[in-house]
Amino acid sequence: MSPPAVADERTLTRRIAALALPALVVLAAEPLYVLVDTAVVGHLGRVPLAAVAVGGTVMSVAVWFGTLMAYGTTGRAARRFGSGDRPAAVAEGVQASWLALAVGALLVLLAQLFASPVARALASDPEAARAAAGWLRIAVLGIPGLLLAAAGNGWMRGVQDTRRPLFFVFGPNVLSAVLCPLLVYTAGWGLTGSAIANVAAQSLSGSLFLWAIIRERAQLRPDPRVIVRQLVLGRDLLIRGAAFQACWLSATAVAARFGVAAVGAHQIGLQLWFFCALALDAVAIAAQSLVGAALGAGDDTSAREVARRVTLVGAIAGVGFAVLAAAGSGIVPTWFTSDQAVHAQAAIVWPWFVGMLPFAGVVYALDGVLIGAGDVGFLRTMTLAAALVGFLPAIWSAYAFNWGLSGVWFGLALFMLIRLVFIVIRWRGARWAVLGATR
């Protein structure tokens, strides 16, 4: 390989790292704050802890909407940016922000109306349900800020600015992590203090992104045509996300049929999987930005080179996680529980968990490539097919034939394998690489 090509490859790898590493911090900020909040509230007793668990489950729906909004906005803004039209890329952020405010207001209204019945449905204990409803009615006031931050992350990633989001998300979450124990313990507000700290972090973060887009001096008027196109993109991502949720819920439901130790080990494995997915998503975000920009610039060659490089980076990251997970097989489960029965079940899960990680690195990277290319219709159909044809039959067969956790995680591995095959075939074809500022 000639020296210039090596230099180009090194430059591209540095660009991927420059986008992925700040994105990783942003992705990790919210989960880390939730851990701090849970630890603080946990010392108030079982009822407040149960209330935050129930309320947090409901709030995760808003986080899910925010993720979809960020991903959809990144690809569209990146194409505009790549075509040399930065104001149009920022305009995508303006319209996404209007959509964020509208969806946020709707979710706040629905939560005020239905907090109590939803909490009662999720919590079997009446006292915990009442506490959860009270926490939720306050915490949802931060949803508009949360969604504004998601929209802001989307367009800033599209214009390849990942430094400002780092400060706009991480800073408020650190501030709120300090504020939470002060309000809960020092001020004596208990569970209410936890909810207010959540609202403070999300509202401040959303305000910073709003301030940034106003400073761009863009046209701030809502454009229904652009918002509708964003909704269509979001619809496909929403359906895809619903397929994932159905798979995770089914896996947990079937694991629970095999006993308390089995579902405990499954939960450990699943949460570790989500943590690894969070890190691998940072590579996918870099792919969204760089692929979208290359296609927007009409440069098919560069888009394919970015796709090849991020796939390699994703595979290396997946192998790295697999090596760490394999090395910690006898140690990591003990961080979560001292129950020997759970440890025994975790030993069944672990080979599946480790074996899936290298393939996950490739799949997540290529997910980012196709999202950046705007090829979300294919991702939607592929994910539904993998769930309906592969995962769900496998998981319920595991229950019917009493295959235990091996059957559950075989279903998850089959889900990953089907996605890998379809997405690699798509990547190697030409249909995803549509050139131009819009798709």
Automatic annotation (TrEMBL):
Keywords: Cell membrane, Membrane, Transmembrane, Transmembrane helix, Transport. GO terms for cellular component: plasma membrane. It is found in: Cell membrane. CDD domains: MATE_DinF_like (cd13136). It is a multi-pass membrane protein. One of its GO terms (molecular function) is antiporter activity. Belongs to the multi antimicrobial extrusion (MATE) (TC 2.A.66.1) family. This is Multidrug resistance protein mdtK. The lineage of its organism: Bacteria, Bacillati, Actinomycetota, Actinomycetes, Micromonosporales.
